[in-house]
Design goal:
Protein name (chains A, B): NUDIX domain-containing protein
Number of helices of chain A: 7
Largest sheet of chain A: 6 strands, mixed
CATH architecture of the largest domain in chain A: Alpha-Beta Complex
Oligomer: homodimer
CATH superfamily of the largest domain in chain A: Nucleoside Triphosphate Pyrophosphohydrolase
Helix content of chain A: 25-40%
Organism (chains A, B): Salmonirosea aquatica
Number of strands of chain A: 9
Order of helices and strands of chain A: EEEHEHHHEEHEHHEE
Domain Nudix hydrolase (chains A, B): 10-170
């Protein structure tokens, strides 16, 4: 495989991916931990090749860093303060892992372009955690799902990037119906409510909530869920095609 | 003034501004027309200086290209296909305006970096057309408000960028209450409905619409509007602080 070099990339522009899942009534974020001393967690990230669109770059980076492919990724925001650089993080990582880097990397030309100020475009996706199997990259010690309210401290502004992804999710939940990507194919109204409560981090009143969701006019009611107690069994729903 | 040169800018990344206004029940877009033969309309656009954040760049570019300042600009999307370049537009403009450019510009080093593929971050703002006075730049023949449904053909993907801004506006209208930026300080419910109808390009049923807006719980009802016919006069509203 051709290994891309400095001139193959667009400089000063990167992509960060926020992959959201849902389990045990908790919203989760997929975060790799780098295989270096110093506890470095970082969102799946990378630079954009000259020969690929930004959407193609997001999909390639996500697959390289997590093994996940064929999911719908959407942009949510670009992050661009003047002091946005990974120089501090990379220097600390190299200092703590000298046996892997040696002195020479500090002087390599490659180090220059990747440590300049860069703007990052955030992409996010919502996935059914039962359907994707994250696979760690060679540069990672581990890859795992973390509760969004208890994330490890990530490099640079990556924790803030997750916060903005969550804001976008809340804003677009009803309009774009993306929340249902986090649920299995059929679900009860109570499961929808629990999902919304996890996303908004607050309780909703049951009757109002149910009315609001049904008023979206996007759910198809199926048979009752089998629970043994017929008259109290809740209905199952699914997203109408 | 120091004139910025190639190395002062982030390469392959630009900003485009979509400035929306509202008048005569029509949604409008502010578009400068370049002062060159060939009818070139282009959104207010520019590159980002190394020393400014992307938000600062958006405000500077907007002011330089339109004279408008102190308005709230928000990002909505980055545009990044691989073939996104202004080479075709610039070559055509130079061919049609040889007396201004001469042969030499085609060979200037400056021409190289500005004609490479570049990604653009779209910013948009909603302004009260009674409060802003656009001022054309020296490079423009004119600057004017165009009905969003009857825009001139702009360079590159600028018409598509306006389309995405409109999508974002529709998506965020209720949540972010940004639509009220387009209305005067006090307004009738009918005026709100006309604004929504202009934005969504479709009629709304009066009673449902009124209920939906009042349910947002953000309007303060004031005295009735003076029309001469007291009992039919509509109430005035304003956005609650």
């Amino acid at each position: 495989m051709h290994h891309p070099s400095e001139k193959d990339y667009i400089h000063q522009l990167s992509i960060d991916c926020v992959i959201l899942g849902y389990q045990d009534r908790q919203l989760k974020v997929l975060v790799p931990k780098l295989d270096f001393r110093g506890d470095f967690w970082a969102l799946p990230s990378g630079f954009i090749l000259q020969e690929e669109s930004i959407d193609e770059a997001a999909r390639r980076i996500l697959e390289e860093r997590t093994g996940i492919r064929d999911i719908y990724l959407d942009q949510f925001r670009a992050f661009g303060p003047t002091d946005r650089t990974n120089r501090a993080f990379l220097e600390r990582m190299m200092r703590l892992n000298e046996e892997k880097f040696g002195e020479e990397l500090f002087n390599r030309k490659e180090f220059d372009w990747i440590t300049r100020r860069f703007i990052s475009i955030g992409y996010y996706a919502l996935v059914d955690m039962n359907k994707v199997v994250p696979r760690k990259n060679d540069i990672d010690e581990s890859i795992a799902w973390y509760n969004i309210r208890n994330l490890p401290p990530m490099i640079m502004d990556h924790n803030e990037i997750v916060g903005k992804a969550l804001e976008t999710l809340r804003l677009n939940l009803d309009e774009k119906l993306i929340g249902f990507n986090l649920l299995p194919e059929t679900f009860t109204m109570r499961e929808v409510q629990e999902l919304y409560e996890a996303i908004f981090d607050k309780p909703f009143a049951r009757n109002n909530f149910q009315k609001k969701i049904l008023d979206l006019n996007v759910l198809e009611r199926l048979e009752k869920k089998f629970t043994g107690a017929a008259n109290k069994a809740p209905y199952l729903y699914r997203l109408a095609r």
